[in-house]
Amino acid sequence: MRANELDLEAGTWELPEERSKNHRAHLIDLPPAALKIIRMVFPLGERDHLFGVRAHHGYTAWGHGWTALAARLKGTVKPWQLRDIRRTVATRMGDIKIHPHVIEAVLNHHSGYRAGVAGVYNRSPYRDEVRAALVRWSERVLALAEGRDERKAVPLHAC
């Protein structure tokens, strides 16, 4: 996430086509919880990327970060990769009754309901539905993190 992709007044993040996996721009209305985190990161100073230790290259070297995190968690979490986050979010959004076509829109996917003839005629980005889904998802994550849910969340504290 880069500072020039954010419009904090509008509460949006626009991922440009050159940085998206499918080379399609993606406008996201950020839920209040995400905006709160982003506003804590500003001002960036010389940095362009919001997250990551490298000021000009963003979040890189996940393998090193995972090794350090795994050591802190002492075997309580199985190894995973960054793409597992997308799969987990998509799956758990389905669990909280977010419709599959909205989940695909959240992920900027153009398959499934947008494949074939349906995709030729239906070009809706489902912006309102995506906004609502992201708010519901952020509320779910907050409930887990704050212990207001029966499932267990692993607490992570700053080093």
Q: Any low-confidence stretches, pLDDT <50, length ≥5? A: none
Rg, please?
17 Å
How many structurally independent domains? 2
How is the main sheet built?
3 strands, antiparallel
Class derived from helix and strand content:
mainly alpha
Span between termini: 22 Å
Number of helices: 6
Instruction: Report the order of strands and helices.
Output: EEEHHHHHH
Whole-number mean pLDDT = 83
Strand proportion: 5-15%
Shape: globular
Task: Give a verbal description of the structure.
The chain has helices at about 30-40, 60-75, 85-95, 100-105, 115-120, 125-145, and strands spanning about 5, 10-15, 25-30. It has about 160 residues and is mainly α. The protein folds into two domains: about 1-60, no CATH class; about 80-159. It has a three-stranded antiparallel β-sheet with strand order 1-2-3. It is built from six helices and three strands. Helix 4 (about 100-105) crosses helix 6. Strand 1 (about 5) and strand 2 form a beta hairpin.
List keywords for this structure.
159 residues; mainly alpha; 2 domains; three-stranded antiparallel beta sheet; 6 helices; globular
